[in-house]
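User: Fold both of these, please.

Assistant: Here is the first one.
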Amino acid sequence: MKRVKRIISIMLLVLFFANCKKSFLDIYPVDNLTEATFFKNEEEVYQTLVGCYQGMHDWLNNGGNWVYPIVSDIMSDDASGGAGKSDYLLPQALDRFDLGIAPGEVNTYSTMWGNAFTTINRCNTFLKKIDQFPWDENSEFAQANYFTKSRSGGEVRFIRAYTYFCSMQMWGHLPLVTETTADAGKEAQADPKLIYELIVNDLKAAIPVLPPSFPDALNGRITKYAAEALLARVYLFYTGYYGKTQAELPRVNKSELLSYMAPLLSESEVKGYLTDIIQNSGANLVTNFASLWPAGASAAGVDYAGEYNHEIIFAIKEGYVDGTEMQWVSDMGARGYIMPPYGRGWGFDVGNKTLWDAWDPNDTRRNASLMNVLQEQNSFNSTTPYDDAAAGTDVREYQSLFLKKYLRQTDASGAEIFGSYVGNPSSMSSYTDYTVIRFADVLLMAAELGIDAQANFDRVRQRAYGSNPAPAKAATFANIMDERHHEFVGEAIRYWDLLRQGLEVAADAIKIEAPGIPVRNGAMLYGSTNVLIKREQVMATFGLSQIPAQQISLSQGNLVQNEGWTVK
């Protein structure tokens, strides 16, 4: 009991200081109080709410190299697995959709899977207990923290929906867990339509109770516009993946799923949500695309737009205290070589040169999205050319190209600044927020659904070309998808955009036929050190990822491994 009281006392101080610091989500709670000892007063309920946010943060960060933002890029046509020359070949197995390349790596996503269901469990507990608590929404604490029963319930429903949605994209077949459970893996996999029903219902319930904004001191809390935008993304994904894939998908009836979902969420409803964001949210595109990310802004000689800019619809916040840094960005960038203003990394998730070569050089997004070691000339470091040999010394599949947006930032001497860990300059973590949905995404989703299609499409394109007029293009579906490709490179969106055009479209885009992409330090795979990807491997997995084998083993027959991920 003394331990519980001590933790609560600490958390009261944390909550107090959170209102004085950068934002609501800069501080995460100590998370070892049980349901039985919790939910006794407003502060404890609030701490539980923040714990749901923390779960979402941990799910994003605590999977080592294998978290959603990294693997989403590696599985797309924009990046190769990379890593060091002597590292294990798991990045290549994921990139090629072929576990035979690294047959021992059968538990790649164990932490990511576990964190997803930990977060879902926290949300379930909160929603179960919410009706049992005697709310006083007029109290000083509740007023100061915008803390009401309906609003906090909406925030938690969003978190559960977002975690479930990303997990459905990854694995496709999951247990449906709406009650707190000691072991989600012991639950049987549900029909996918029931998971999507929960996701849609959670978001539709959240939208009317969430506020349009929060005060700056509570920046990072989920708004109604975040829920509306996520619901549009969910709708476009499941109607695309299940509606445009020609192959029969294992253990799911595509037409039945779409028929089941049709009365739950209509296209006209989605259009209404997107229109609401465009007309009423106050969101807008920042003027200069390069200003959206700190290191790239420094390289371009422009002011960083900051983490609270009006283009961000929803971001997962990072802070300036222990436990809140973004960890996965340490995977990206050159190994052991700093190129100011870009920090070092571990060489994973390297850009494919084919992307650079096919990109219109007049489109400012190319230099803002890709760091080309051979060609980059930036105002920040114009007098010291980068050493391509040094940058690629220990990077497998090196193509002189890195995904730029989340590279960490340094000063001119190479000392990390915005991305350095307070009190530990050698840390490779980052405090850059992870932007999940930008206003550009809303405009392009609206264009895709026919809402002022040409005008919304042109808004995004014209920003991309800066002061020069953008070449005229009709707002066709193909052109909109191409625009999305160039707008969101390195933002964990491209792979899912391919998959929702149909499994066959994704496989055709991802495949790399002989002679392949020439790379430095390539692994000998499929008879070549060039990067090759077989179309049939993508098709064999149906675009889904491997469920951790230990979860399959412990599930007592309730979990079935996704096709294509069993070593033969």
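And the second sequence with its predicted structure:
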Amino acid sequence: MLRELSIRNFAIIEDLTVSFSGGLTVLTGETGAGKSIIIDAVHLLAGGRGNSEFIRHGARKAELGGLFQISHAKHPVYKKLEEAGIEIEEDTIILRRDVHDTGKSVCRVNGKLVPLSVLRDIGASLIDIHGQHENQELMDEKQHIYLLDHYAEESLAPIYTTYQTQYEEYRALKKELSSISIDEQLMAQRIDLYQFQMKELEEANLKLGEEDELLDERRRLMNFNKIFERSNAAYEAIQGESKGLDWIGNAMGALEDAAIVDEQFKEASEAVTTAFYALQDAAYQVKNVLDELEFDPARLNEVEQRLALLQNLKRKYGSTVEEILAYYEKIKVELNELLNRDEILQVKERKVVEMEAVLQQLATELSTVRKTAAKDLSEAIMAELRELHMEKAKFIVNFEELLHFDSNGKDQVTFYISTNVGEPPKSLPKIASGGELSRMMLALKTIFSTSNGITSIIFDEVDTGVSGRVAQAIAEKIAAISMNSQVLCISHLPQVAAMADHHYFIKKEVEHDRTFTSLQEIDTNARIEEVSRMMSGAEITELTLQHATELLNMANARKMQMR
């Protein structure tokens, strides 16, 4: 749930920090006090679109922060955090977003900088904002199949998992077929190109590690004179007559004689003896190399030509010999497919037909399960609608079969509803009445609130356009939803305010020619006055206070029954 919300320099809010609890929290206040601004701030915090116009006049940036506590170990947000490489400690997630006057945003999740898309993805798992006229997930026809599948998850999951595996293999095979199915002229051009390239690479006879060996050999050949002169000088200095090795031999003999007489020379004698034989071995090695050294201008030219060939091939086929050889293997396979195109096509086409038969069977099973679940869902939603005084409403889940397979099978699912007797059902998003739309949304949200995995649900004046017994029904339905998810609700209805577990009052004040918005949780007496104001308007009388008290008492009794 959303535990704490902080807002700085956002619209008419200078500095606001508020803590929230579970259950139903209602925010009320006079028109223009800034209730919707708070929702706008939460919307931006969850990754909504924002710009510099939200920044309070005179400030350089708007700062938004939210602390969420996750109580469910299998909450879908954990997977999203893992995919984004974000750690979570003590079941706490902190979202932060700064909107600068340049229009740019800086987003953080648990202190880690993230792109706006990641913030939006994570925010969607934590917050579900509903406004009266917004196109919500429930009002998006493309989402209806996912909602139905979620409702039928227990019975649908095993078949759906198998279908997904088969479908991905099917898509890959279709992609292979598409790559093979090219026109004759293009195919002939590719065959010629691949054959030329393969011949060029085969004649080059490339070997791994060859380039490094050639570079080393070229370096030796180009520095032949220096190598010969310096190695010869070294040999003469060690092995030449009356040179280093002779003098060290003399020192070795002398120290051996001294060590016989005095043991303190023994260590020095052994060191000189070791050095003598090491120098002798080094001299032999140098002499062997000198005997084999021979400058070959023709070989240097061969090396240069070979290196030039390698560079030319690297420009065409890859930055390394390894990449060039990998490219050779790739075009070898592709050339074989082109030369044997008809045979390969037949094999793959037969495989596609076989896979389509399997997919058709699985899609049929999916559809059967969905249609069974759809009947249960329709009954559950109509029961909710009856409680919302839409007794005549008829809700159905409409199925149409797609011509081709998609990731969900072959079902196209759309929620249809008829709210008046004699009127044919229409697609849910086409309902015109704001009051009916609000009640439909609440009915659906009641069904899905226990399983959608959303941490916090926010209703922004979804009760507009209703009154009387319908208003009371909506209030009770919102309260019912809050039994499973934290609900924050901005409302003008006294019935909704009376059902609140926590009631915040939003007011707007002017100080030093600047407007400020403040938010404060109100106690029982203040709640009576606020509900009284909502019932009667600006004037509060003893009678309206009595009615407000009665409404609050009735709401408390109803909540006790619901629990």
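The first strand starts at residue 2 and ends at 10.
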